[in-house]
Amino acid sequence: METIGPQSANSNRILKPLPRHRRQVVRQKVHTPAYASLNGNSDDMVLDLSEVIDISERGASIQTSSPWHMDREINLCLDLSETKSYVHTTGQVVWANQSGRIGVSFPNMSKGSREKLQEWLFLNAMVGAANYVARHPDEDEGPQERPAFHTQRVLGPADEPRGDYTSTLAALAAVRREVEAQGGNLASALRLIADRSQAFTRADGCAIALTDDAEMVCQASSGDAPPVGAQLEIGSGFSGYCARTGFLQRCDDAETDPRVDRE
Fold this sequence. Notes:
There is one protein chain. The chain is an alpha+beta fold. It has 2 domains: 19-108, Beta Barrel (Thrombin, subunit H), CATH 2.40.10; 113-245, Beta-Lactamase, CATH 3.30.450. It contains 4 helices and 10 strands. The strands form 2 sheets. Strands 2-3-4-7-6-5 form a 6-stranded antiparallel β-barrel. A 3-stranded antiparallel beta sheet has the order 8-9-10. It is globular.
């Protein structure tokens, strides 16, 4: 059986991605530490860690120490230290270059592993939004440039290190405990998350929509936001723009923002 792992480079040619593996979900840039072990199974210790560059529920870009070949199935473990969780899954190397960076898809991730990753992605997005505002406290607010959340500075005074996530993580840990206290009541947990997200970000409103096949329906709402049961039109409007891009967005004036569908 052929060993799965890094392969020696035989040329300087960049290994191009296969068209059938074209990315369908926008990945988040990593704002809190995340690493991957690419040569273990669910029983192994996490060794030979490689840095995760960006990630989504569907796949990740990972910087390894040596070039890889494409179309290789690997066993990997994601070390998501800020949520103290490990995600074990199989992956498929869908692109690679000579610097050792690879793109890995997650075609068979289990429900439990996906939930752990979703939890980390939520925290990572919140930290990214908080860091942005902390770095740009005096920046003019334009509809195309700022994140979706009007976020208070949660990283402390301006002279503190930008990598200090203490305040953000403490607040999110408190929300996590509140959500866990809801047990299996998904509707109640989503309402709580919507309320806390609005408070954290000082937004006028917050809505949480979940996909069901081809539809995206609002499941929780807080403040000035679409009501529960409202269907999101992914193909148009500001909310649809957020869903299509996968990035945090901000709208300061619905009358002038070109992303808003005023019809």
